[in-house]
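[Automated response] Your request has been received and processed.

Submitted sequence:
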Amino acid sequence: MITFEAKIREQTVRLYSDLPLKNAAGALMNVITQVSYKTNIFNNKFVLCFGWSFFFLTEQYDDKGEKFWLVQTMDFNKNPERDRTDNCTLALVVQNMQHECVQVSKSRPEACNCRDTIMVLKEAINAENVYMHRKEAAKNGDSGWYFGLLDDPDEENRPLSDFEMVPTYQLLQYRMDAMRVLEMPVGTVAVFSGNQMTALVDANDNALKFTTEEERRRMGAKQRADFEAEVERARQQAQNAEKTETEEK
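Generated structure:
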């Protein structure tokens, strides 16, 4: 587990992740810092919607009895409406995916959080070839997204019982890669084969650029290598400083 730590208003804030998600963790810490200048966040009641997920600050004590504030998030492996987790990996991964999709496609993001709903064709949940289309939201809490079968001849004539409205976090169970398009603007259409996105177009049917699975794997490997190199440099500096201190004594 990797620990990201920041000093905010003289308070120690820590965030845990399984992956070296330095950019996402740093962005979250920066937002928490900005909010801390406007309101009291160190009260065990603080809730922050950052991108797609919600985050909390919980008072903790380490093995030495020193107090710190732990960043927690909704536990999407259990009941996210009720359970929290100290491991922010999944929430930050989704945040990175969505940021990358918007940036690469050069689109203007439109907010969508994990509690917003999406209309799902039940038959499409386990299908191989599906698509997602974002329309104008019908009401508050509606993402506007539809998840259905690709080339479905019966789509316009299906009864309401064929569909269900579910919170967007349920897409984690259906198709992880679909999570990355949730902040794309109204009119966007994304096509998936299995868990891989194969096409992305805007409201005018213009093809949008997106990173392929292979490109994402390369970026992930480079990010981990860069992080490990940074950790090793910090370790060497600490060892050298300790050695110098010992020699001076």
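Summary generated for your ticket: Helices lie at 22-36, 89-105, 171-174, 213-248. The radius of gyration is 21 Å.
If you did not submit this request, please reply to this message.
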